[in-house]
Amino acid sequence: MLLLHCSKTLKKYQFNDKWLLFLGIPALGLMLAILPFIFIKNNSADNNFWFRIMVSLLFSTICWIGCRQIVFTLWRVFPWDKRPILHLCFEVPAIFAYVSFLNLVIIWWIFVFVIHKEFVMTTQIWQNIFISNLVAFFVTALHEGVFFYLQWRHNIKRSEDLEKSTYEAQYENLRSQVNPHFLFNSLNTLAAQVEDNPGAVSFVENLSDFLRYSLSNTGRELVPLCEELNMIGKYKYLQQTRFGQNLEIEMDVPEENQHMYVAPLALQMLVENAIKHNIISKDKPLKIKIFMSNNNYLSVENNLQKKIEPGRSTGIGLKNIINRYQYLTIKKVIVIESSTKYKVSVPLVEFESAREKQ
User: Fold this and answer.
1) N or C: which end of the chain has fewer CB within 10 A?
2) How far, in Å, CA of 275 to CA of 279, rounded?
3) Which domain holds residue 96?
4) pLDDT digit string (tens) for 176-221?
């Protein structure tokens, strides 16, 4: 039953001390055999050294396993994170009593059955008990120290996993909200185009391609930049059909960077935000530029000419992108606003990182 509880405790706290057992017990045995010669006066050197080694190994084995059992039992009964005072109050006297009793039993056995003398408590025996307890408390402290380190590491990982899970949940929730407002305007524009303009066919084709891209990538966290730029080309056609020369969208992304990855529809949302919150007219054309900036960032920049009465913001756009990138990479989304320009830069993700996400 004790072994079963010990095994459960080890599994619960993710603590594997086999390496401590295999290395610690022999080292402790040698230490207990040698220390008396160093610290105890009048310790006869003519004693059988190898016999002392054997007895010390026997004692260290029983001592280590017993102290280990006490420590693991107290971890289970009085966990450090819940009852640290009780844990300490029981651990110290329990270790002291166990080691002292074990010392007395082994010394008595040696006196009675090995050297055939009457067992009498001497100063040397008390010194042996004192040294054994010091070593036992060192072993206990070693177990507790390793335990605290592993628990600290485990808690950090658990915290990171929890944070990641939270971002995943938020990401899924936010991504499900992506519903571009421009679609409604596009459908209205289409109604006017169908009757008197042959360009309606091209408009419908681009709109269909864009919708197909949006729907096919709802289950992906990252897409190749080249695909996103191709989609932006179709989105540009749709919006310029509506705004004409009053809207300029320029893309300047070197081909060598287009193998990297970006969050799907992130660029479209940034362009859409620029269109939604800025004046677009013949006198004040809106100019949007998509280009590479330093450290593998892709920037979307527009001249700033805010609407006096901007459309009601749902808070989905930029906040959505920032929250998605908190999950996708440690790099931050950078937002820079001046009196004349507004720029948002999103980090591009390398192939290996993207493969892990997909």
Assistant:
1) N
2) 8
3) 2-173
4) 555 545 655 665 666 666 666 667 778 877 887 888 888 777 668 8
